[in-house]
Known about the structure:
- The complex is a heterodimer of chains A (669) and B (651).
- In chain A, 19% of the residues lie in helices and 35% in strands.
- Chain A has 13 helices and 36 strands.
- With 651 residues, chain B is α+β, with helices and mostly antiparallel strands.
- Helices cover 18% and strands 37% of the residues of chain B.
- Chain B contains ten helices and 39 strands.
- Chain B is globular, with a radius of gyration of 29 Å.
- Strand 7 (131-139) of chain A pairs antiparallel with strand 7 of chain B.
Amino acid sequence: MATHRLGLGLTTVLGLAFSIDLLSAQAGKPQAPAAWPPVDPAELAQAEAKVEKGADAEALLWDMRVADGVDQHGVYTEYRFVIRVKIFTDRGRDQYATVKVPFSPRVVVSNIAGRTVRPDGTTVELKPADIFERTVAKIGEYSFREKVFVLPAVEKGSILEYRYTEHHLYSLSDNLQLFFQQAMPIQRAVYHIKPLAIPGRITGMQAQWYHATPVPFTREPDGYLMTYQANLPAVRPEPYMPPAAELQPWLFIYYVTPESAGDTGNPAAYWLKIGKSVSEAFKLVTTKLVTPDVIKAAEPVRAASDLDSKIAAALDITRTVTPLDGASPALRGKYKPDQTVIDALKRGVGTEFQIRMLFTGLALAGGLEVKGALAGNRESLFMDPSSANIAFLQVPVLAVRSADGGRFVDPTNRYSPTGGLRWQQENEPVLVGNDTDPGLARAPLSGAYLSVKTRSAALRLSEDGAIEGDLSGEFAGHFSVATKEAYNQVTPAEWEKDFKESFAQHLTGVEITSVKFLGLESPKQPYGYAVHLKMPGYAQKTGTRLFVKPAVFEYGEPPGFSAATRTNPVYFPFPWTERDSVTLTLPPGYEFDEATAPSGVRFAEDASYEYALAISADRHEVVLKRTLVVCNNKRILFEVSEYPGLKKFFDLVAQNDGFALSVRKAGSQ
Amino acid sequence: VIPRLPAIALAATIAWLPGAALRAASVPAWLKDATALADPPLDRDAGAIVLVDDIAIEIGADGRKRTVEHYAVRVRKPTGQSAAGISEIYQAGAGRIRGLKAWTIKPSGQVVEYGRDRILDLALVNDDVYNDMRRQVVRAGEDAEPGCVFGAEVTSDERTVFTNFEWQLQETWPVLVARRSIKTPEQWAIKSVTFNHAPIEPIVNGRVTQWEVRNLKGILKEPAMPALSDLAPRLAATVLPPADARLPLFDAWSSVSRWLSVIQDPPAAVTDDIRVKSVALAGADMTVLSKVKAFGRYVQNVRYISIQMGMAQGGGYQPHPAADLLVKNYGDCKDKANFLRSLLAAAGIRAYMVAVHLGDPGYVREDWPSPTQFNHAILAVSVDASVEAPAMIRHPQLGPLLIVDATDDQTPVGELSVDLQGGLGLVVSPTEGAIVRLPVTPADRNLIERRWTTQLDAKGTLTGSLVETSLGEEASNLRRYVSGLSAAGFAEAMERRIAASVRGARIDRFEPTSAPDRYDVSLSFTAPAYAQALQPALLLVQPPALGDDGPDLSSPTRTSPIRLDPAMAKERIELKLPAGFVVDELPATASLETTVGRFTATARAEGDRVVLERSLVLVGGLVPADRAGDVRQFFERVRAARTSPIVLKKP
């Protein structure tokens, strides 16, 4: 079970330092050691996991208490864990007998206790001297620490149990996702929740279930509300799977204030209200935005003729400002927290908020209508508009309009030539700040022909089976954005090393030279590369023939999906296209045998693959044209029942990519 | 854990920290001088060059040390950006870094000075449950444009019992000047020795002894290269305090052994509980060897957990009492070796702790007696002369000894991991301590044998079975790999591995069996549309071929020797042809015999079947850099032979 906070919590809304004498604070203080609950002999005798056969370990109980409170420092949340795990194998012992509890400066970890119940029922207690605290990293005043302990005498058949308390300062359990599953199977996962009540400020707490059969809350004598889920399998990653929040059972808890009471029951009214709030907030931050300096800077925007060119002109100016997160130390040194958007423009560095506001100012001064908007993030959650909670819309974007029409713009998406949304926001609801209507729109999903890998190669085959020649590639759309953002995380030297290794992974013994990269730091130019390649033994030899695979870019690549079965739906982040063109020339005196090239493959209307070979009249050269289009009709989520068909499609693609042409010496039989 | 600390939290925090101040910083004179140097002609292709690497140590009469380090590196190219930085190790509690100052001087003359907000303090070893050892790091790569000079000045104090110093004088970058000096109290002596380089003679000036080396060429990182510690110059010095200094004197291996035995013998004490456990583990009529194997297996299965405290006082060499391990069922390498020693002692079997260096058999050098050369502890068990096992050595004084690594739960007692083979170890004893050479296992002990029985149908579907048997290091490697996987995970991994050779293969049956001396995998599979129809009457079949393709030697140049592990692989593939098809072409017979190894491959038609047999023996050891082409050619020819296809035709 893990939690994740969405959006802004009430700590932000309420402030951190208010003082209300409601509850006496006990959290974080040493608690009298509680007796361990008795161990069921049946559990001790259990030799096999119940939830998932063959599991290395199984949590018999994963229990967490969440309680909010107030003390002299302000609000806090206390999490109290009790965990009981049955160990079935040595691997389970190695994986779960060491416990690490990381914590940050505003968290206190206390009341750690643990013991091991041996298979014969005897117990070994965790000694306080065997609980360590280590500073993982420290820089200036910031430090990241963890409590570490190893449960003693753990062996196959043992039950280990431990408990600890985390006291989070300046925290409320508001907008909290409470997940039930873990890396190991769980027999019973329990949450006990004790909300805070502040008359006039907090009137209650709401909970929403996702992907679970809800278990009604039970009120416990100590004031906690308890719910649970049982028989939870372990979380198992699969390639191309949806985010955890779309697969696992979880509970969403959030506070209700007098202002938000009744919101949940009427999503339409809720979004109208929130749309107005967003609009008011946006007006507030943009009221004094269009200063004479901004108007002066926006001259190219005003001069542009239509919506797209005005946006492009505003982006050209905005992109001279480097985001603070990722700026060089020298640029970071110029940044001032209280700087205006014009300061950001002059200094060349600013926060994402300042970049967004600079674009807004320029667009407004250039004659465009701009509204603030909030979009979902489908990398973590597919937002459902019937879930009336602004926490599900996390990403600020802009809705820009002129007489020509309108579109969404994310000025912080630095490497999108048009300032389009990142793939995470595409196809997600977007709440546009609006005074009159709910303003909940859906961002369009870009088509497969926007995110394209275009690659070409001109290669010569030698008599010994080696190939040599020039390769180039160009990535557009989301591929280009993702590549450039990845480049920003490493040094140029690391990038080149990783790039070369990406070839060597599927082309054994390949030699890559004359590497050139294009557009890596350019917002407008797509990412591209050009290399010279030499690979000995590319073609296979028999006594009289050479066999050569024209699809060099796919050589040695495994099929898209290797597993015969699938547990989770398949989810592609965005539609895409691959276009390859390969020219292969034979050594003098050799020619291609007759060949029947593989045919095209389709998967319903969702994916298509074409493979076309053209052998020259003198049989000395072949040209391959290969096109793969995935999520053709903008469907990116496929149910488990569709997996066999999808796998078959990608298997056939891999099979055809592995097609070999036979080459002989001219005139030989 | 609520909320989990995001993995990116630290990186994000660092990214949000204010930039290093660009100030008219007070750059020290030594760094100004280093910066003023013209870029030297040494190794001009290297991305960076170390201009100054100077460490000066002053030892007090009580053994306390103060170290002052000056370091300057010039970045020449973007590939050298990572050189701009410094990492200083210290032991929390016994030492501290008193001051760390660092600067980047840009080609324009602009100076970036790094304050406290750019010094990262990290745990030295992240996997340990607890470890005193920490490091402070300044990373200046993002400021390091080509032409800049990064410099650092570090002052640190340490209180330690060790008077041995070892410096690797180079990482990978070329070095213009590397200098070390030690200032001792009166009457103290110093001995030094150089490894991987011509002897660096000390210059003695009063109480200061100084060593200096210049113009070290850079070391390229290359695949299958020996450990850097076997290539870079290393300087080792032992300071010999007077007898009344109350510090250990490491002037000979016997004194190192004595010192270790003083701290390692008491924790091996046999308690009643140990005696009871020893009796419980030993069968009534077990031989000494079978007792060693039974006890060894038991201790190898004790969980490895590393808790390192008091390192500067020798804590890194001192095991926890064996009785503690019996209760806790966890410990580190020295704890486990000591626990096994105690159990054996309870059964009347004598065993010695052995200090070794894991991961680099060439690391420990006999001509420098020092405990600091070791990073691992194993055991040498006295056995009778009739015992035969790959891990046996015969010592002139101590007699036949069976080397047992109580930590390595994937290598059975009687064998030794390749990471230890051939290295030097110190057998610890108050009176009989001795340096010994650990045994090397011949290639045929590390055998992997595969037998494929397959059948092709006219549609190109390949079905069949594979029986794979691994022995020696091959079995240990497989056990190591499998230990991190669930049963289902192993099956999935095996399916991916088979599918990498037999495209589209799906495993129908999977039966792994681990025995103490071998690892067997038996499976059956189906690969639809595996063979390719070239024309209606021709089928192209790629015979299965597992095994690796050797190290990546694609670079046209090679500067360091190539390290190859001894190994042997045999493969037999039987392919039943589809009805109506006959053989048109078979892979050619291949036979290679070089100093790298031997390879043979044959293919023959037998009725309605094709039988292919392959055998590969790698001799192992170090191949000189100038013979990289031979090694590359050997593996290329092996790969070409292994991937050579079969052509079938319908007459």
